[in-house]
Q: What sequence folds into this?
């Protein structure tokens, strides 16, 4: 009961600071809106980036037709595709098997040789090669398009096809991803973590009468827990907005369950908030709180990316959140199957939650 | 019950007070703090400072106790011991019969504490009533919201808050109003005793009196015991019991009337004399009258005269003396010693005593 009161008091205090709320809620929306207006990603930059990357492409050969008896043309084509620079090919029997592999990101996409390929090519009729690319990997589509295109050119030269016998087509379902689609998992996990961290670093040091509160029957454990709970709830509200706004207003339509994606965000909120509350117990002035926030932010986002020290991305929670959101929202994985992505976040958050409690318990400062 | 004699051997209360319950009881409380200082070349120096030494005092239910001393005397430290925020290195502290050192959680419910600074006492972004409500809810978590708000309104209105003012955010309240919100927070859970650290400091004279009167009101209407900590002698007239603190030690403890009577002749009665133009010579000449015990300057042109007997005879003697030295009298009235005059005379006597001790120690 007292805990509920403490949480209500925290929420009321948060509500009283409209300016902070506006920053926390409106800025990310503006950012999302800007991404929405940007439209699609692509252009020269992606072509440049794509050059020279190792490209694991799946191939499914569905052709049963017979063409020029001298060759098995479909296999010849596949051979030429495999010879393209930095391409590595994996064969699949069925489109389903290739899709599964794509889901687990073993390949960045796959090419399907349709039935009738050999017959059509031999008869100088148009034949189609389809390809499917990973929509979550921004370079997948340009890479595959480039390699397939090059392979077609080489194939035509090698077998003397001079007309438009062969063309390729990417499946309609995989359009070039929009900027919102591509960046949303990163934006939502970053914003929730950062905003939680930012608000929570002021939560203890900015609560001037906190020592008077701890001179009531309220336990220090309750006081810290209420702060973590209240700010996590606040970040849940923010997560709801960041799921709903692109979904409803920016046409971000994903196959997964938005509600599960939202619930999953509570873990990253917990991480950011408990880390912030911990740093707030260490700070002695509000300015120090802000400095701690900057420090925490840099540690989380620079070290936590794992770019500088490999493996740190397995310790810090950002990556788990970002990948997890992708899996739930874009690949339709159920929340229950996400334990591997959830527990590292719970562990990270709890380490700081306990640290916050210990640090606050030891805090002197009689009034 | 064995009991250490308080330093200085103060009078213990007598008569019917003995049967009343002690609400605050400090015995031989000593507080030391240690600090570690690092100095080159690589030396750690640990210093232990005693900030409160052998302090004993008590007060009974329904009393207003004043803890008076100069800044740095250790008043807040003593209050922190009473509230369990600091542990004395020696001695015992009990509040409403509960040992604070060992049963802090139980003791916390019995007192209300009003810290010195509003910044750390009141939530600026909550209204007066919300502040009182949230703190009330910390103590009375099982009690309904409406009931707590009702109680909050009751306390706030005793402290002079009108309905509209209760709904105003604390950041928009004046200093005196904020102080009263802080007092209401300390009162909301119906404690047996209210502890206030410098409740009048920083307020102008009319607000100081206002706050003190509100406290007196709470004491009368709700029967709550009060401890007021102050460096201001002015509070003494509101107190039924006084502790004078100096450099961490109790130098006087008792009923202010009793203290005054003990020190001053004629139960503290005095003659107040106002002349046209006062100077040191005149004061010295009055002081030299055989019956006169003490003379203190109380204003630009007035003095208080204490003598063995304060009566018509004494008044006529003073008038006669003024005539003799050719000083026109503006007014002459009967008066009483207040605590301020008591304190001044006491300090002066102490000083004289120390001088004579020094003098005899090193005869010239
Ligand atoms: N935690 C502490 N560490 C060191 N010195 C302290 C501490 N608390 C108080 N003091 C010192 O003890 C003395 C008494 O302080 P305090 O009780 O605040 O005085 P008062 O309230 O009467 O002005 C002061 O000289 C103060 O500097
Ligand atoms: Mg003080």
A:
């Amino acid at each position: 009961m007292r805990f509920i009161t403490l949480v209500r008091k925290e929420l009321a205090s948060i509500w009283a600071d409209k300016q902070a709320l506006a920053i926390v809620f409106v800025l990310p929306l503006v950012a999302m809106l800007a991404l929405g207006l940007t439209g699609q990603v692509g252009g020269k930059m992606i072509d440049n980036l794509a050059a020279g990357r190792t490209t694991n492409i799946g191939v499914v050969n569905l052709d049963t037709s017979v063409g020029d008896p001298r060759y098995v043309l479909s296999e010849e084509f596949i051979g030429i595709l495999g010879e393209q620079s930095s391409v590595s090919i994996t064969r699949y029997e069925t489109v389903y098997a290739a899709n599964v592999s794509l889901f687990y990101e073993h390949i960045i996409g796959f090419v399907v040789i349709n039935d009738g390929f050999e017959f059509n090519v031999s008869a100088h009729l148009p034949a189609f090669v389809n390809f499917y690319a990973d929509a979550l990997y921004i370079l997948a589509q340009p890479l595959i398009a480039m390699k397939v295109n090059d392979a077609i050119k080489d194939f035509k030269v090698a077998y003397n096809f001079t007309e438009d016998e062969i063309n390729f087509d990417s499946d309609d379902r995989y359009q070039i991803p929009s900027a919102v689609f591509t960046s949303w998992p990163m934006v939502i996990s970053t914003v929730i973590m950062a905003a939680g961290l930012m608000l929570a670093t002021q939560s203890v040091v900015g609560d001037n009468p906190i020592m008077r509160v701890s001179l009531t029957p309220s336990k220090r454990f309750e006081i810290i827990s209420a702060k973590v709970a209240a700010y996590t709830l606040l970040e849940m509200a923010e997560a709801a907005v960041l799921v709903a706004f692109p979904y409803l207003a920016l046409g971000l339509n994903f196959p997964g369950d938005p509600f599960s994606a939202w619930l999953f965000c509570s873990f990253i909120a917990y991480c950011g908030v408990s880390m912030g509350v911990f740093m707030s117990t260490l700070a002695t002035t509000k300015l120090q709180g802000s400095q701690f926030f900057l420090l925490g932010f840099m540690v989380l986002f620079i070290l936590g990316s794992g770019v500088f020290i490999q493996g740190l991305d397995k310790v810090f929670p950002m990556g788990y959140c970002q990948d997890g959101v992708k899996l739930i929202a874009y690949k339709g994985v159920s929340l229950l199957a996400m334990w591997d992505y959830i527990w590292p976040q719970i562990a990270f958050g709890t380490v700081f939650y306990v640290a916050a409690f210990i640090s606050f318990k030891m805090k002197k400062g009689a009034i | 019950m064995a009991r250490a004699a308080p330093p200085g051997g103060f009078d213990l209360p007598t008569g019917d007070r003995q049967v009343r319950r002690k609400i605050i009881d400090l015995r031989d409380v000593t507080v030391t703090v240690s600090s570690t200082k690092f100095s080159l070349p690589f030396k750690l120096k640990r210093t232990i400072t005693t900030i409160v030494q052998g302090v004993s005092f008590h007060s009974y239910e329904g009393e207003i106790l004043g803890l008076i001393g100069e800044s740095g005397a250790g008043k807040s430290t003593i209050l922190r011991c009473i509230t369990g925020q600091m542990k004395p290195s020696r001695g015992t502290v009990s509040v409403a019969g509960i040992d604070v050192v060992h049963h802090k959680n139980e003791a916390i419910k019995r007192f209300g504490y009003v810290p010195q600074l509003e910044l750390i006492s009141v939530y600026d972004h909550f209204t007066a009533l919300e502040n009182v409500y949230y703190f009330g809810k910390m103590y009375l978590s099982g009690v309904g919201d409406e009931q707590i708000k009702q109680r909050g309104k009751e306390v706030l209105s005793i402290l002079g808050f009108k309905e509209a003012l209760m709904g105003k955010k604390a950041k928009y309240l004046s200093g005196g109003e904020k102080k009263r919100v802080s007092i209401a927070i300390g009162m909301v859970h119906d404690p047996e005793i209210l502890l206030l650290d410098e409740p009048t400091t920083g307020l102008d004279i009319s607000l100081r009196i206002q706050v003190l009167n509100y406290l007196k009101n709470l004491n009368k209407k709700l029967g709550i015991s009060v401890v007021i900590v102050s460096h201001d002698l002015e509070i003494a007239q509101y107190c039924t019991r006084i502790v004078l603190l100096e450099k961490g030690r109790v130098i006087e403890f008792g009923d202010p009337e009793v203290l005054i009577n003990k020190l001053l002749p004629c139960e503290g009665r005095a003659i107040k004399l106002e002349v046209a133009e006062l100077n040191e010579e005149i004061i010295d000449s009055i002081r030299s009258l055989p019956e006169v015990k003490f003379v203190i300057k109380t204003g630009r042109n007035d003095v208080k005269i204490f003598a063995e007997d304060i009566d018509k005879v004494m008044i006529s003697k003073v008038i006669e003396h003024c005539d003799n030295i050719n000083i026109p009298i503006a007014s002459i009235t009967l008066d009483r010693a207040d605590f301020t005059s008591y304190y001044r005379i006491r300090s002066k006597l102490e000083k004289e005593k120390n001088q004579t001790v020094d003098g005899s120690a090193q005869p010239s």
Summary: Residues 116 and 201 of chain A are 65 Å apart (CA to CA). The first helix of chain A runs from residue 2 to 16. The two ends of chain A are 26 Å apart (CA to CA). The longest strand of chain A covers residues 55-61.
